[in-house]
Amino acid sequence: MQTYIHRTMALIAIIFLTCFTAMAQSFTLTGTVVDEDGNPVELATVACVKQAKVSMTNLKGKFSMQLQSADSVTIRFSMVGYKTRERILHKPSGKQTLRVVLTPMAALDELVVTERRRQTSQTERLDIEDAKNNPSTTGNAVEELIQQQAGVSSHDEMSSQYNVRGGSFDENAVYINNIEVYRPFLVRSGQQEGLSVINPDMVGSIGFSTGGFEAKYGDKMSSVLDITYQQPKRNEAKAQLSLLGASGFAALVGKKWAMSHGLRYKTNKYLLGSVDTKGEYRPDFLDYQTFISYRPDSLWKIDFIGNISENHFNFVPDNRETSFGTLEEVKKFKVYFDGQEKDLFRTFFGALDITRQLGKNTSLSLLASAFYTKEQETYDIQGQYWLDDVNQNTNIAVGTYLEHARNYLTGHVENVKMLLRHKTRKHESEGALEIKFENVKERATEYEMRDSSGYSIPHTPDRLDLIYSLRSVNEMRSRRLEGYIMDTYRFQSNTERPSYYTLNYGLRFNHWSFNRETTVSPRASLSIVPSFDDNATIRLAAGLYYQAPFYKDVRDTTTVNGTTIATLNKNIKSQQSIQFVAGFDYRFKMLGRAFKFSAEAYYKHLSNLIPYNINNVKVTYYGENIADGYATGLDMKLYGEFVPETGSWVTLSLMKTKQNIAGVSVPLPTDQRWGINVHFTDYFPGMRRLLVSLKLALIDGLPFGPPHKGLEAMQFRAPAYRRADIGLNYLLIDRKNERGATLKRLWLSCDALNLFGISNVNSYYWVTDVSSNQFAVPNYLTGRRFNVRVSVEL
Fold this sequence. Notes:
By secondary structure, the chain is mainly beta.
């Protein structure tokens, strides 16, 4: 009995000593993280890497975490936009309290991203570094980055345009430094497209939303691309030369001012040599852009953005030969051409931003901008064609067609905007009032004649009819008054382990003098970082969105005796979309590196729709509100450093759309039912100077039908768009961290564009025989091409 008592007491003593030792080895770390002005830094990351413990600061900048003691414990404090700090605690015990001051980055190239910025709104922040050194066909790096995001699709590698969740190209808003920008009106193909207004060398940050966006963004139904140009921090210069063009960038910095200049040149001649239609291509696209920033004192800020773009597309076609069909039914389409095409797209854009600080947390800005475009599209092209059945060695159709156009358009938009911002500890509020003056003049004549086996199509015995004829002489002068007010409220639950909430709510209104319509758009979104897992974020959004009409929307057509006349419909109304979005983000570690998984489910109820047709990148509207419908789907994205210090991702999008036109239910013209995009970046094994970038796209084909028959005739679907581009980038010289070095970096790159040589279909040319049977001849996009690039950083 005595032995049993002794053993029990010894066991109790051991347990007690073990618990005491464990308690002695642990300690509680609390503290506050602030900026240089003493303001709390919310949602900053506090990490003890060796113990795999991570916490975040609350809305007051405070944090608390339980750690194990040691001879030395290293704590890391990090936040995007601030320098990372480390504090070393020597043999900590009990309760330790720290006050840490984070200082902002001195220059962009010193930025070290320790994790992706948490998304607490419907606008995702994309990294401009993910767009650099990638294989590119357009030279528009930002748009190509957008085209690889979940919910976004593009079926033309020569175009910078993209569709978002069933919307048209015109449903995407683009902002540069809070100013909405425009694109030319008459562009009808990716071959004609020049460089976009966004210069990637000048971009500081990219915000992109595929739906449910805030009230501060204008009246578009699909997406918002929010670009901020960075103010240069030091003198620098860059240059790039390739088979597809060249670019140069220079930045100069003074005591109170900074300026950057970008010059870009692009040509599609090399790429167009791989398409079926042979001839003399002379595409020349030139773009100059400047950003000037002046800070006379701490209270005033003056910024100016200027852009001049001159795009020429000249083409003398010679011949075309296209084979299509199946193994059992191979058809060959041959054409010999006469004539030429000459197009001009000249645009000017300027924006001035004058901001006055009214206090530490309040600012008032006056923004003024002007946009001007002069466009002309002229062509007379005659083609003599033969359509043959190869297997049966028979001729199906033979004939001649003549296409003619004299399209001229000028337009200008002036804009004045007053913007007020105010920030408190829990609220960020802003409101704006804006007035726009719009003027568009168009004079257009188009016609197409088709002759099949000596008979004009359509064939009528008593007169000669053209298969298509259009005349438009119109001018639109209008005034638009817009405004919004919105607030972002950040708060937390009153519990021991709180949940963090970000509530954004706002109201937007628009009045257009052309149709005397006034619209009001309430919008709200809520983001939750739940207490049970601070790596998760739940996002909910809902709102009423309008697609405010512009010139292309109101252009209505009526056909009399075979001639189509375009007039302006003053009874047009804004298209309407009620959107519901539910999103989920989860951050996690894998292989010691940071990853993020995102998923969004959405439903858009569409009403007052103006139906439209898409041919290549040209959107032609019906000019009347005669349809309604819906779009619903699921978008998923996995982003992370599959390879250290490089960003890679994979996306999967599922979607279904419908619109009802006069009792007939058909999919939207941009009904992409599924899409997969992969962007992978890696270093070549054993060679950190050799960077490999891979882009993969597998996207469902879009519905199509014969021309001039309406959307109801779109009973076919094009093949899926499949493409792989790979780029090899070798860093020949790297002296970026050497003080006084003139040549910082020298890159040599080689891109394999359309690596597998897949013949993707962009659109269809329809051949009609004398019996009015129609055959869809595919217009294929570019084939395999290799591009060499040399990039220099000074």
